[in-house]
Amino acid sequence: MSFIADRVDAALEWSVAGSFTRVGSALRRRLDHWAPLDERSLAGRVVAITGATSGLGLEAAWAFARMGATVEIIARNAAKAEATCVEIRQATGNPKLGFVVADTGDLAALRRAALDLVERRPAIHVLIHNAGALDDLRQTSPQGIELTVASQVVGPFLLTGLLLPALRAGAPARVLWVSSGGMYSEPLSVDRLEMSAGDYQGTTAYARAKRAQVTLAELWAKRLAADRIAVHSLHPGWADTPGVARSLPRFRRVVGPLLRTPAEGADTLIWLAVDDGAPLQESGRFWLDRRPRPLHRLASTRRSDTPEERERLWSWAVKKSGLVI
């Protein structure tokens, strides 16, 4: 069965669409005999997650709450965060949900939120970078950074560093980055990360940010190995979320019923957060459907991924975020 599962998985990966749609998750679930996650207990564990008021993040927050975790939501909209916490508390009977207010693109707000979190939760076991949006119009953060890069690369990088004391206290801990298959189309290039107003394209900016996320996850994994903090990135597949409906309406119409449900898209994220096997035994991997995946599908992106460019990305992130390491 393992041989058959591997062959089917390889065929799905080759097809791309078969791999990323609900077809891939359904076949892999059966052939790999995925263990159910809803029977796990997360009592005593603290999970901090961005982007948890809708889509995949909301699905994950519900799952963690049902398992008994303490869930801390990092959200830019206080009213939505409060409503989300109230709804989950009432439905699950788990009172241990809280939130802090910060847009992941606003570095000053993230610093305030991190101080609040560390004060209330001196030990954090899982940090999830899930917030992200694909915008057609170029915007800048309060610190003057192009907003896609600020909210999905610089902000999460800063938040990881600021929460390191709590993550070390919660070790073995995990840091998870929700990336996208869109990163396969873009090479690693620090100079091209912040697109100018003249050449800005939302899908390209998003894909470049996602490539940077995956690379930074690998770099963090090496630096935090001695601290027993595992770092992973993942691709949720093509899921039907409010973000897709808003940003990619044509894609949503074309793919239609083949899109994954939010629960199917969030499965690997939840698995990486709660399973004490492979997610803790190795670090720095990129996952889809509970299997590690290659970082490149194109020779052009593979050539760009040099040690020198990786070091440039790390130095750039340190400088842009103002993080003292």
How is this structure best described in words?
The protein has two domains: 1-34; 40-321, 3-Layer(aba) Sandwich (Rossmann fold), CATH 3.40.50. 51% of the residues lie in helices and 12% in strands. With 325 residues, it is of the alpha/beta class. An eight-stranded mixed sheet has the order 3-2-1-4-5-6-7-8, sandwiched between helices. Helix 5 (78-92) links the parallel strand 2 (70-75) and strand 3 (97-101).
- Name the CATH superfamily classification of the largest domain: NAD(P)-binding Rossmann-like Domain
Low-confidence stretches: none
Arithmetic mean of pLDDT = 96
What structural class do you assign from the helix and strand content?
alpha/beta
Could you give the distance between the termini?
A: 47 Å
Main β-sheet, in a few words?
Answer: 8 strands, mixed
* CATH C-level label of the largest domain: Alpha Beta
Strand content: 5-15%
Order of helices and strands: HHHEHEHEHEHHEHEHHHHEEHH
CATH architecture title of the largest domain: 3-Layer(aba) Sandwich
Number of domain modules = 2
Looking at the structure, the CATH topology of the largest domain is Rossmann fold
Q: Kindly state the number of beta strands.
A: 8
The oligomerization state is single chain
Radius of gyration: 18 Å
What is the approximate shape? globular
Helix content: 40-55%
Q: Reading side by side through the largest sheet, how are the strands ordered?
A: 3-2-1-4-5-6-7-8
Distinct helical segment count: 15
